[in-house]
Amino acid sequence: MSSAATTPRHATRREAPHEQTVAAPGPAEDPGAVRIGLDPHDGRPVPALVEPAPAADLPEAARRLLAGYARFAGRASRREYWWAVLLLALLQLLPCAIVIVGVLRGAEGAPLVVLGTGVAVLLGLVFALPVLALNWRRFRDAGAPAPLALVLLLPGVGPLVAGAIALSPARAERAA
């Protein structure tokens, strides 16, 4: 008999060395927070997407917005929310500028108006679900009923109500 036949199968199998390593929190980090690994750019622990990211910057908020494309579970911090809102507003500047140039050119600028409007509508459709999911998570973090995020679908008053709720502090901040 060969040694492979007598060795149990699990003894000869080699495990990959920590492919999905869970990083230990740093000294200033919450030891109870769930981490999904290390940021490849600066080596900082990356918070799990279900936890709010109170120290999120613009790139972090963009990554979380796109990674959580249709993720309604978890919470979103105020900072994460408003960075994502700023990013989406900046993305809409280009189609708005195209429309304005088209309007200023008069009749010969009509194709630019159509192009700018088309790009704006396309961006709106692409980001509709992520924005709804982001608001859902932000409402949950603020202590409001998450399904209230559907108020965004109401023209005019919906974004105002959503913005007011998104400005409120997290439940944990209010309790302290």
From TrEMBL:
Keyword Transmembrane helix: yes
InterPro entries: DUF805
Stretch list, region Disordered: 1-37
Highest taxon listed in the record's lineage: Bacteria
Transmembrane segments: 81-104, 110-134, 146-167
Record keywords, A-Z: Membrane, Transmembrane, Transmembrane helix
Name the record gives this protein: DUF805 domain-containing protein
